[in-house]
DNA sequence: CTGTTAGCGCGTTCAA
DNA sequence: TTGAACGCGCTAACAG
């Protein structure tokens, strides 16, 4: 049954018929016990209520469709010890493969993963020394690109707004610092406003308020993610700060919402669905023992320029009411 | 080991010591095989990339924390046959409990669930005849409440905007129809604009455009969900339609974003995290054989009134650009 | 290519 | 109260 091509067609037919007649269904517990291998692909992420990871999971699920592997999702709640515990639990299940978010596992966690004896893919980032395989994008480089975009649009007092500040956010912040220093725009930490609070639209507004209190001459912000960016945009509207004229805004992830907000928000597009799909494909290839498989993939990113940073060359006014996009006067 | 109190303390200590020394960890596959019962709680939902279900899952996960049960999430992609197949797969795992979204299972699916021999909780809705247990809210009643709110605020040409139109959305639409008819405001299907497309901010704007093309005198909309509502708000801003003066907007679910948008959006709050948590608690109680447990729970809903429908007593137009939230003059 | 057999690690039952 | 024996349904290894 497991290897249909090694058997005479006649026998195969008989088996198939018997399966039908008896309504046979394999018992996964028995399979796992006898083979010392389950059909589970463990997926360890920091949060489920974050669109970013939902997109990743979609890719994973789609990649596993029409296979007899099952994804098993767990969330670490952004804690390293939580991750270790979860990995320890997984190791008792003898999973067929593991997908873990990020590259900041503890030494212990790395060890557990290596000892699992199954393919392991780290996702969402790049790294020169993955545990096994890796697919994602360079967060720091993406942060740099975002800030370069703002500079190219003529902004100079560029702040950074970040919630939660998990390792990926830290790397984006590092990218921001790289560019600000290289361009001679750095003012120490004066323009950086972060909070350990979970990310949300509301917190985006708060962060902007806090930063403006310290730096009234701020003219642009690079936001940790699109939630923060949209929250900051709303805060601008509440304060009568026109975007993009008085304030440029760049988000991160390019969620659906930033493309249709008014004004639309410039964002760094990352490929989360593709990342999940690829991670699964890497595992499946490894499981089939296919040669020449890629063990490391950079999915890249793109800065999608939109109205929230489109300060140059826009001269006229859109219609009235509720209309934040109304440059009155323009010099370039 | 499984029943520590039936054993002499001395023996218990010896066992504990041995467990430590050997680094013993139970093998879930062997447990499942020997007992014909796994420690898995199956969770069947239509989509993972929908904030609504992410909230539900959070509740489920938190409820299962510190138990030795594990949630297993699968998504049906909004298809009834997908649901049947997934349930069939689950039944081979002999789950400890099942949580399924909605009440619109096929007869076959219902049968599979009843035959699983484990507690089953339907979530997100109410029903007089659940398969086993149920926790959620009355979607139709919630739809009615949303429309009543708009009427109370003086709106009369009230449209309905809906994407995807899954069974829950259909029930909200039914609630809309109930009220429009009862109040003599119904115009057949003229004011109803729906699409089978998945919900998104973008589609919210499109739906409003389409409806406005047919009904230029529209003065309010009840939206299927907050994504659609926010997309519609952005479309209003693009068209220079002032909210709430020229257009009232009510969303559904009360996501974080609607409370901080400008203007903030009135929405129907539902209790999704609580629903997930309660569903798990019901299952755990059943599994422990606890008596007097509630088998059906209505988690209710609340209309959270915000600026997007706050037309009465607000007489003048908000200040210019970016500033919808600043009433200058107030009469009540 | 096909039929047979021995465990996988646990829960359960029975005897002590 | 404890220990021993059996078998859950399957995979893998082997002999036919």
Oligomer: homodimer
How many domain regions of chain A?
A: 2
Q: Care to count the β-strands of chain A? A: 12
Based on the coordinates given, report the CATH architecture of the largest domain in chain A. Answer: 3-Layer(aba) Sandwich
What is the level 1 CATH name of the largest domain in chain A? Answer: Alpha Beta
Q: What is the rounded Rg of chain A?
A: 24 Å
Give the topology string of chain A: H per helix, E per strand. Answer: HHEHEHEHEEHEHEHEHEHEHEE
Average pLDDT of chain A, to the nearest integer?
90
Structural class of chain A: alpha/beta
Largest interface: A-B, 55 and 57 residues
> Which spans of chain A have pLDDT < 50 for at least 5 consecutive residues?
314-332
Straight-line N-to-C gap of chain A: 72 Å
Strand content of chain A: 15-25%
The biggest beta sheet of chain A, please? Answer: 6 strands, parallel
Output the CATH homologous superfamily of the largest domain in chain A.
Response regulator
Shape assignment of chain A: elongated
Provide the helix percentage of chain A. Answer: 40-55%
What's the total helix number of chain A? 11
Q: Widest sheet of chain A: strand order?
A: 2-1-3-4-5-11
- Examine the coordinates and then state which fold CATH places here, giving the name of the CATH topology of the largest domain in chain A: Rossmann fold
């Amino acid at each position: 049954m497991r290897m249909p091509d090694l058997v005479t067609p006649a026998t195969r037919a008989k088996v198939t018929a018997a399966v039908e007649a008896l309504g046979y269904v394999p018992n996964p517990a028995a399979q796992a016990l006898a083979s010392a291998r389950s059909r589970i692909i463990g997926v360890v992420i920091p949060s489920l209520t974050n669109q970013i990871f939902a997109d990743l999971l979609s890719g994973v699920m789609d990649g596993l469709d029409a296979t007899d592997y099952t994804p098993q999702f767990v969330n670490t709640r952004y804690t390293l010890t939580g991750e270790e515990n979860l990995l320890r639990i997984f190791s008792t299940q003898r999973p067929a493969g593991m997908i873990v978010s990020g590259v900041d596992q503890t030494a212990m966690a790395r060890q557990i993963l290596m000892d699992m004896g199954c393919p392991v893919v780290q996702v969402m980032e790049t790294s020169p020394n993955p545990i096994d395989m890796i697919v994602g994008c360079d967060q720091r480089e993406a942060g740099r690109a975002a800030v370069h975009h703002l500079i190219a649009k003529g902004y100079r007092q560029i702040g950074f707004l970040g919630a939660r500040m998990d390792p990926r956010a830290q790397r984006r912040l590092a990218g921001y610092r790289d560019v600000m220093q290289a361009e001679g725009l750095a003012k120490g930490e004066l323009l950086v406003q972060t909070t350990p609070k979970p990310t949300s639209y509301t917190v985006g507004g708060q962060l902007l308020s806090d930063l403006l209190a310290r730096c009234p001459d701020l003219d642009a912000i690079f936001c940790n993610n699109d939630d923060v960016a949209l929250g900051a945009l709303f805060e601008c509207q509440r304060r009568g700060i026109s975007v993009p004229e008085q304030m440029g805004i760049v988000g991160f992830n390019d969620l659906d919402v930033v493309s249709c907000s008014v004004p639309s928000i410039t964002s760094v597009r990352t490929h989360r669905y593709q990342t999940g799909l690829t991670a699964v494909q890497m595992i499946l290839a490894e499981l089939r023992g296919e040669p020449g498989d890629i063990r490391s993939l950079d999915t890249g990113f793109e800065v999608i320029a939109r109205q929230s940073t489109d300060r140059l060359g826009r001269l006229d006014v859109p219609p009235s009411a509720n209309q934040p996009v109304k440059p009155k006067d323009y010099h370039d």
